[in-house]
Amino acid sequence: MQQEIKTVIENFASAALATNGPEGLNVVPISVVNVRGDEIHLYDFFMNRTAKNIKASSLVAFTCWRDFVGVQVKAEVVYETEGEDFDLAVKEMKERFPDRTLSGLIRLTPVEVYDVAPGASPDDLLKV
Known about the structure:
Blueprint: H1 3-10, E1 14-19, E2 26-29, E3 33-36, E4 39-44, H2 48-56, E5 59-66, E6 69-80, H3 84-96, E7 104-115, E8 125-126
Antiparallel strand pairs: 1-2, 1-5, 3-4, 4-7, 5-6, 6-7, 7-8
């Protein structure tokens, strides 16, 4: 993933994840995001409908922005509730948010990334 895209994601002020599946079209606000290599990790603390949709469909859209700079990431998604990455996420989130319980790790692998800044063209596909 290009550094420019990572920087936008790592410095977001607002973010949302869109899913579609048995729970219908669903968009949720996202508060915690980490870029791990070429993956984007999101953390399920309260996402019941989102988790059901992810388990049924392997594609999502993640959008994040600060002021007038942002990206939309169309991604393949994996929902994990066990394994090395999940265990590491549980430990990290328990340190950061001791009052929350992590239900699942949401791993996004970007397929397409678009610029969502005002004036950007729908054709403004950025190189992943």
